[in-house]
């Protein structure tokens, strides 16, 4: 695995936010996939916050969410967004910049 | 076949509710499409603002392209204060910003976030009206087209279930009404806006492409966008059903009244005065205007050649004081260059002024100048429409027509003579080495009119008609 380019970032705590709308299969899949990816690549250095927009729809406007599920990497900066259930692990790693696109 | 018409909601947009026979389908989506810059966003916004301010129906504006600040600035020119309406919780605005470059797609997703935002906005103001401007932007942000299409279908169903009257805008595509084929999702009402430029003059037009389950006008209707919003000219097919008045109105010149069966023009008739330059057409119009104003009637004077100041001065020289009538408010003078607007825009503007001012007399001086704003066919079509509008309101219409030197005097290049009830010909008469002005009534429907050419003078007390030319004795015999 070629993660050496991200060593600096890997030193920090990763703050991840997953936006869902209720307990839908897509949201549950996304959360499971995210947890698995983080455990494999960011063990002990990440925080996942799940925001259920069904419970708080105002945040969809405030945070500019259109697609569900949406994963936002808040830290390290810059902000990154990945939409979908993260079923493609390789793409998720690239999207979060845990791996460089080849 | 169902005879019952769909329930409709009024848009409040000037003329549109007449064209649609009552407004947009209630609780259903309507598609407004057209090329960039045709006025889609403004029309959608006016629908919302009028709903919130005139009909007690709050609204939601979902903008995909402009930020709320840009949107508010753009419609401020129409007199709409969006910020205030938002503060009063009559309108909610949500800017859905979709930045394709910021989005990485990975696996299955849907657009539930958009639904939640829409639902939240609707609930926050109790909205009955919703605008989505323009939903096609989604296609630029997400790559999964099949998903987008099924989500759009779900969205339109959802809007119907919520019972909101929605307006969706879409940009015109090649050979299709909208680039993404939105018309296939909106089955109830589709309105097409068009903005054409002909010989440097632009005209906006509106057409109802489809309106299921209801009758509607099928023509192209010209419309204007000005500081009070949008106004559509509802060119109703009046046909020839207007009632004819027996009332007579004085021409302002006793001798001319005498020539017209002793009483002057019919109220609500159309009068054409044609002649070459300098024959006194404007003077005749001014005297009619002054006489009507003196009776307490309201006159709308549309001047296409002279400025009000110039007209006041020139008419003062023949003893006709128009200015005092203008100050009293019985005369409204509107001077504009014909080439400033397209013919249809002129028509919309005239229609608007007639509605606002409610005159009993309308003067167009001269109509020949309108030719320069369009083709001759357009000009006569426009005059026909205008005459229809005026007749239906029992307004006496007075048109001046300038014949250029080479024309046959008994023709008008706008070809309206057959629509005219009273046609007065002004001409120069060369008698005994003098060039004098002469007036002749070519026709005047429904009255016993003079068939003689009368010489007339422009004096400082107005137009003075003399005896018929044939009756005068020659002095040089």
Summarize the structure.
Chain A is of the alpha+beta class and 102 residues long.
Describe the protein.
- The complex is a heterodimer of chains A (102) and B (477).
- Chain A is α+β, with helices and mostly antiparallel strands and 102 residues long.
- Chain A has a single domain (14-95), classed as Glutaredoxin (3-Layer(aba) Sandwich).
- Helices cover 32% and strands 24% of the residues of chain A.
- Chain A has four helices and four strands.
- A four-stranded mixed sheet of chain A has the order 2-1-3-4, covered by helices on one side.
- In chain A, a hairpin with a 4-residue loop joins strand 3 (70-75) and strand 4 (80-83).
- The two termini of chain A are 12 Å apart.
- Chain B is an alpha/beta fold.
- Chain B has two domains: 8-232, P-loop containing nucleotide triphosphate hydrolases (Rossmann fold); 248-471, Rossmann fold (3-Layer(aba) Sandwich), CATH 3.40.50.300.
- Chain B contains 13 helices and 23 strands.
- Chain B has helices at residues 16-19, 40-54, 68-76, 82-87, 112-125, 137-141, 145-162, 254-259, 281-294, 308-316, 323-328, 343-357, 376-392; strands at 8-9, 24-25, 29-34, 59-63, 91-95, 103-105, 129-133, 165-171, 189-198, 201-211, 220-226, 229-232, 248-249, 265-266, 270-275, 299-303, 331-335, 361-365, 396-402, 422-431, 434-444, 454-459, 462-468.
- In chain B, the strands form four sheets. Chain B has a nine-stranded mixed sheet with strand order 5-4-7-8-3-9-10-11-12, sandwiched between helices. In chain B, strands 17-16-18-19-15-20-21-22-23 form a nine-stranded mixed sheet, sandwiched between helices.
- The longest helix of chain B is centred in the first third of the chain and has 18 residues, at 145-162.
- The N and C termini of chain B lie far apart (83 Å).
- The interface between A and B is medium-sized, with 33 and 25 residues.
């Amino acid at each position: 695995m070629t993660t050496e380019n991200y060593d600096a970032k890997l030193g920090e705590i990763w703050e991840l936010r997953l936006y869902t709308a209720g307990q839908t299969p897509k949201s549950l899949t996304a959360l499971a996939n995210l947890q698995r990816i983080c455990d494999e690549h960011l063990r002990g250095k990440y925080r996942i916050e799940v925001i259920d927009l069904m419970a708080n729809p105002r945040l969809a406007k405030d945070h500019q969410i259109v697609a569900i599920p949406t994963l936002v990497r808040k830290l390290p900066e810059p902000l990154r967004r990945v939409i979908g259930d993260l079923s493609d692990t390789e793409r998720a790693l690239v999207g979060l910049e845990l791996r460089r696109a080849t | 076949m169902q005879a019952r018409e769909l329930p409709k909601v009024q848009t409040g947009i000037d003329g549109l509710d007449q064209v649609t026979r009552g407004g947009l389908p209630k609780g259903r989506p309507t598609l407004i499409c057209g090329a960039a810059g045709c006025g889609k966003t403004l029309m959608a916004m006016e629908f919302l603002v009028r709903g919130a301010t005139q009909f007690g129906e709050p609204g939601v504006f979902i903008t995909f392209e402009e930020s709320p600040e840009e949107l508010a600035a753009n419609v401020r020119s129409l007199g709409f204060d969006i910020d205030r309406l938002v503060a009063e919780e009559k309108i909610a605005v949500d800017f859905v910003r979709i930045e394709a470059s910021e989005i990485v797609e990975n696996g299955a997703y849907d657009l539930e976030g958009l639904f939640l935002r829409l639902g939240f906005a609707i609930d926050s103001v109790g909205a009955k009206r919703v605008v989505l401007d323009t939903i096609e932007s989604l296609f630029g942000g997400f790559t999964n087209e099949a998903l987008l299409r099924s989500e759009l279908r779900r969205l339109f169903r959802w809007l119907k279930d919520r019972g909101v009257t929605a307006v969706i805008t879409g940009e015109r595509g090649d050979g299709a009404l909208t680039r993404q084929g939105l018309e296939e999702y909106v089955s109830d009402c589709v309105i097409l806006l068009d903005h054409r430029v002909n010989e440097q003059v632009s005209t906006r037009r509106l057409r109802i492409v489809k309106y299921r389950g209801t009758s509607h006008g099928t023509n192209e209707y010209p419309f204007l966008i000005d500081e009070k919003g949008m106004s559509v000219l509802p060119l109703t097919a009046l046909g020839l059903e207007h009632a004819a008045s027996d009332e007579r109105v004085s021409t302002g010149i006793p001798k001319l009244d005498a020539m017209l069966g002793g009483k002057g023009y019919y109220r609500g008739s159309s009068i054409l005065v044609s002649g070459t330059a300098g024959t006194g057409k404007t003077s005749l119009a001014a005297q009619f205007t002054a006489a009507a104003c003196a009776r307490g009637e309201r006159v709308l004077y549309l001047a296409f050649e002279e400025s009000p100041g110039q007209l006041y001065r020139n008419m003062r020289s023949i003893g006709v004081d128009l200015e005092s009538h203008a100050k009293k408010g019985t005369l409204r003078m509107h001077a504009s260059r014909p080439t400033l607007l397209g013919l249809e825009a002129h028509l919309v503007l005239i229609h608007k002024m007639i509605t606002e001012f409610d005159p009993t007399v309308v003067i167009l001086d001269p109509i020949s100048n309108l030719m320069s704003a369009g083709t001759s066919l357009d000009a006569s079509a426009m005059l026909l429409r205008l005459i229809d509008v005026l007749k239906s309101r029992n307004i006496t219409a007075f048109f001046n027509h300038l014949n250029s030197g080479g024309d046959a005097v008994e023709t008008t290049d706008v070809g309206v003579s057959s629509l005219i009830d009273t046609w007065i010909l002004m001409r120069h008469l060369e008698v005994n080495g003098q060039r004098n002005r002469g007036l002749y009534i070519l026709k005047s429907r429904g009255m016993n009119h003079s068939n003689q050419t009368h010489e007339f003078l422009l004096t400082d007390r107005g137009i003075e008609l003399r005896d018929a030319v044939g009756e005068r004795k020659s002095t040089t015999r």
